[in-house]
Amino acid sequence: MEKYFKVGQTVWDLRFGEGVVTGDESLNVYYPIIVRFGFGYAEQSYTADGKHITGCLYISLFQTAPIITPNVPIVEFEQGELVWVKRDNDYEWCARYFSHQEEEYYFCFCAQKKGGSRHPWKNISKLNDIQF
């Protein structure tokens, strides 16, 4: 059987944060890994591969700190809506009328009018969401 954790190792749990392995040979053969966390969580038990004792189907104990990206709200734009757009290498926002979206690109009309040629943008925002 492969061993993933050892006594004294610093580990991370998605729910409890950083902890230290205090035991790896418990009397419980199904949950032999014991980890002590701060903040009043006391000790928690895990399977040898890092699944929590609460019957988790997925691994929640990791050897390195997981990189968690926060959820970003979905913003939808209406065709003809006036929005702010900006190129990646440009510091200035400019107002354009929204046309449509294709994958990660937002197409807006090139001039400040609701027609004509369109340009793809990646940086787009509602008019009232920009903080200057």
What labels would you give this structure?
single chain; 0% helix; 2 domains; 5-stranded antiparallel β-sheet; 10 strands; mainly beta; 132 residues; 37% strand
Summary, kept brief:
With 132 residues, the protein is mostly beta strands. It is built from no helices and ten strands.
Kindly describe this structure.
The protein is mainly beta and 132 residues long. It has two domains: 10-62; 82-129. 0% of the residues lie in helices and 37% in strands. The radius of gyration is 25 Å and the shape is rod-shaped. The termini are far apart. The mean pLDDT is 87.
Instruction: Kindly estimate the percentage of residues that lie in beta strands according to DSSP.
Output: 35-45%
Number of strands: 10
Strand arrangement in the largest pleated sheet: 4-3-2-1-5
The largest sheet is: 5 strands, antiparallel
The radius of gyration is 25 Å
Number of domains: 2
Could you tell me how far the N terminus lies from the C terminus, measured between alpha carbons in angstroms?
Answer: 57 Å
Helix content range: under 10%
Separate helix tally: 0
What string, H for helix and E for strand, traces the elements in order? Answer: EEEEEEEEEE
Q: What general form does the structure show?
A: rod-shaped
Average pLDDT score: 87
Low-pLDDT sequence parts: none
Helices and strands: which structural class? mainly beta
